[in-house]
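Possible regression after last week's pipeline update?

I re-ran a chain I had predicted before the update to compare outputs. Posting the input and the new output here so someone can diff against the archived version. Not blocking, just want to make sure nothing changed silently.
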Amino acid sequence: MLKALLELLVPSCCAGCGEPGDALCPPCSVDMTSLMPVRRRNGLPPMYALAEYSGAARRAVIAYKERGRRELAAHFGSLLAEALARLPTAAVVPVPSRPAAFRQRGYDHMRLIAEAMAAPVRPVLKLDRRVKDSVGLDPDQRMRNLAGRLRCTPIREKVVLIDDVITTGATAAACCAALTNAGAKVVGVLALTAT
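New output (post-update):
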């Protein structure tokens, strides 16, 4: 009843286009259903994104990460689960949030999405508090930002790393290296968007 009352006072709208209705309307969802290969660094497994980091997809990711639209986790989880079915069978490892981002949001945004995917989730990666926000950093600065600041619990299975945005590939490279060193076989990287 509280949800219905809240809907009357503040009707929901699509985080991608702003139209009244669901958190992510069908047209914006459809725009995030491709499995685009992303250019990868040497030594990385195949990398894919559901959409370019622009337009409605970018607005939806920002609404989820920066504006508290937690309800998008279910939508993003469903979209990633459909894409995951086209990759080799594996457990899902979410890229961890920075501790400061976790405190600010109140949740680990990629873990929440992973848990909505109906796939085995292995939250084995952890960033330490010294990691800074990577926005505005070039690829080398991003690698230095993560160097020695990413830990992984031992894991001996096939995994797919999931993230929200692939920008330079530095985060994916650091996470894949940590996973491999911990005993995992990383069979792919799957992101909601890529620049």
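Follow-up from reviewer: compared with the archived run. Residues 72-84 form the longest helix (13 residues). Marking as no regression found.
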